[in-house]
UniProtKB/TrEMBL annotation:
Keywords: DNA-binding. It comes from Paenibacillus sacheonensis. Transmembrane segments: none annotated. PANTHER family: ACREF/ENVCD OPERON REPRESSOR-RELATED, TETR-FAMILY TRANSCRIPTIONAL REGULATOR. InterPro entries: Homeodomain-like_sf, HTH-type_Tx_Regulator, HTH_TetR, TetR_C_Firmicutes. Residues 36-55 bind DNA. This is TetR family transcriptional regulator. Residues 13-73 form the HTH tetR-type domain. One of its GO terms (molecular function) is DNA binding. It comes from the Bacteria.
Amino acid sequence: MTKVVHESDARTARSRSQLKSALLELLGEKPFSQIRTKEIAGRARIHRVTFYDHYAAKEDLLEELIDDVLTEYADIIESTPSNLIAQWPPMLLVKTIRQSIRHIGKHAEFYRILLLTNGVPDLTNRLHDQMSRSLHVSLGRMSTKHADIDYDLFIDWIIGGAIAIYKHWLQSGMKQTEEDIAKQMLRITLAAGQVFNPRRVIL
């Protein structure tokens, strides 16, 4: 009985994965509003009836695809060690940045659609909001904060810079290696890192 359940779970996971991949391919060709459920099923080589075994509508499939990727990114940001946030040590920081860049590279097609096209309206705002929530979680664990810093503005500044770098990397065909991009992000972030050490801030 257990074996049958496991096989059923594996088939379900495989079908869902195929449908997500198919939707992502189609989003690279046309806006979401123009994609039909029949097209998704056909691209995934899955019967249309099978599609409805998993999702009530194409919107549900899209929502799960977005949640999967953005939740993975949120986990990277929120898992930043507290001592990294408090002390801003380069060796720990670079690990988080590398993981973020690796995540963008792993889901490059998703982020191309998200950042470089308007195939799914408001998707860039979804990324911004998710990053904002996650950074608030991370920065909320800081033991020391600079009283004169508006952290909502600081977080928006971080997000704007990160998204700009991701867009540049994707637009350039990802010619720079993940390591090169990570090093550049580290240098830029460390240049602003004095925000986390009030004694270094001179106004």
